[in-house]
Amino acid sequence: MIKQALLRNLARRNPFQVPGIMDGYDVHFVKIYCVFVNSDELMKNYPDEISKRGFHDFLQEFFSKLGIELFGIADLGKLSSVKDDNGDDFHTAISFAVPMNPGVMSGIEKGPNQYYAEEYARVNGLIDTISSALTGRLRSTACPARALPSSDRTDPVNLKGDFPHKTAATRAGLGWIGRNCQLITKQFGPWIRLGTVFLNLYEEAGRAAREKIVFGKPCNQSFCGDCQKCVEACPADALMGNPWYPGIPREELLDARRCDEWKKKHYYQFHRGHNCGICAAVCPFGAKQMRA
User: What angle, rounded to 10 degrees, do the helices at 114-139 and 26-33 form?
Assistant: First the structure.
C-alpha cells in the first residue's frame, strides 16, 4: 500500500510516462523518492547529544532512515578553502550519494531529454533537503557545519563551484573519478548526484564525537582500466582520455569550456544548457544496473 501511494505521488509530480521506469525499476526509484519530507521531520527522534554515541552510528541511522546507502566521512586536511562562521577552514566533510533513476539514465546515450532534466532537478532538490537537515542537526550540538549546494556555479569564469563534491567523495572512499570527470561508484557507476556537508568537530559537544569518527579510506586509483567509452561518446570532444589520479588538474581530464559551450548550443532547453549526461549514460559501471 505504501509503495502504491508513493507511485501515485510520483505520477502527480511527474505526469509524463517514462518507458521502463515503472516496469522493473520502480522499487529503486521509490526508495529515493520517498525521502521528500519536511526537513523538520528528518531531525526528530535523535538523541540530544551526538557525542553520546559513535558519530558514524549517528550518520548510519540518519541516512538509513532515508534509504541512502552510500555515504562516508572525509578527512580533507588542507584541501578545503571553505570556511565556517568563525572564519576557520573546514577540515572534515560528510559525503553522500543519491542514485539517479536507471531507466532515465539509460535513455540519454544520444543526448538529454525532458525526463532527465526532471530527474536531475528532483535529485538536486532532494540532496539540498537532506543536506540542510543534517547541517541543522549538527549545528544543534554546537558543531559548526555548512551544506554545499548540490549544483551551484559560484565561479562562472572558471566554471566551478565553491568546492568539488567529487573531491569530498573520493576522500570519503565513495569512488574514483572516471575519464568523464565524474565520480564513479562500484554500486551505481556515475548514475548518481552528490551531497556534501562540511563540519568541524572542535567545540565541546564535538570533541568526544570526533574520537569515535571512522573516516572513509580515500580512493587513490581509477578502476576504469582501458575503457574509453565516455571519451568516444562525448559529442563535444571535451574529454581528454587520461586516467585519473588524486590531484590531477581538471584540464587533463576535461575541457570544461568546450563542454559548457556545446551544452549551451545544443541543449539549452534543459536547464539553460547545464544538462547533458551522455558520458555518464554510456559508462559500463552505470549500465550494469540495467542488467541486474
Answer: 40
* 235 vs 216: CA distance, rounded Å: 35
Q: Phi/psi zone of residue 126: left (φ > 0), alpha (ψ -120 to 50 degrees), beta?
A: alpha
Q: Is the dihedral of CA 75, 154, 254, 119 positive or negative?
A: positive
Beta bridge partners of 195: 96
Contact predicate 193/95, CB 8 Å: no
- What are the domain boundaries of the chain? 38-291
Residue 209 in contact with residue 201, Cβ under 8 Å?
yes
Average pLDDT per run of 10 along the chain, which is 292 residues long? 37 36 33 35 42 74 93 87 82 95 94 93 95 92 88 67 92 97 96 94 51 84 96 97 95 95 89 86 91 68
